[in-house]
Amino acid sequence: MIAVAVAVLAGYLAGFLHGPAALWLLALAVCASRLRSARGKGRAAWLAVTAGLSLLLGLHLLPGFSNPAIIRDVLMSPGAQPYSQYVNFDKTLGGVLLLGGIGWRPLRPAEWAVALRRTVPLTLATVVVVMAGSLALGFVRYEPRWTQLFWVWAPINLLTTCVSEEAFFRQLLQTELGRFFRRWRSADAIAVGGSAILFGLAHAAGGWRYALLACLAGTGYAVVFQRTARLEMAILTHFTVNAVHFLLFTYPALA
Fold it and tell me: Residue 225: how many CB atoms within 10 A of its CB?
């Protein structure tokens, strides 16, 4: 949490955070920590507030954040939509605080080998299904290329997109759905399907094709999380899909 405090202070000094930004982040940290120990109706209330704050931060709907553009209106290939990339302080810090508040424990070094063996086949299947679907829907073309922008894009996409989204949709929502339906035989399927559908709906602003593809991708990430019980593996799968898309196909999509 010291690192987060330093990041928030630096954000204020640089002018990227202002006004009530710290209050929203503090509120999320407090609510997430209360959720960790809450039970019964109290847990439902803390879950609703925690999820609501996380979602509003992720959708950039709370005031106090001026997220800088690192890449602006770049055409990655002929016929592609212009692409811009922002460093989203609200979404990234919200994801980190959510994980810290609910008590997420990172993988130990000795656990990585087992987790990766379970993950790699599922990751490859997710990449194939999502990109085949993207081609079939006319969302992208196969356009392999290399660009130095990858070194800018990769760390921001990993931290701002993959970590934050998987923290919310998998570690929070999928876990809570599984907990709520734990007495049902289909609890795991409900948790996987529920988090995948919500992930797709969160991308609906990009159009029905984008939402459908996000739902397919979210299903893959959710299955990885369910099979491994490790957030790192869902993040790895999410980033792999995004990196394959960035390097081998039209990015972000055909115009």
Answer: 28
Q: Which of 160, 199, 192, 161 is nearest to 175 (CA)?
A: 192
Q: How far apart are CA 243 and CA 253, in angstroms?
A: 14
* DSSP output for 157-182: IIIIIIIHHHIIIIIIIIHHHHHHTT
Q: Is-contact 225 234, C-beta < 8 A?
A: yes
Helices (H), the chain: 2-14, 21-37, 40-58, 89-102, 112-136, 150-156, 164-166, 175-180, 187-202, 208-228, 231-248
Tens of pLDDT, residue by residue over 130-144, are 999 999 999 999 999
User: What's the DSSP call for residue 60?
Assistant: T
- pTM, two decimal places: 0.96
pLDDT at site 138 = 97
Q: Decide if 216 contacts 133 (C-beta within 8 A).
A: yes
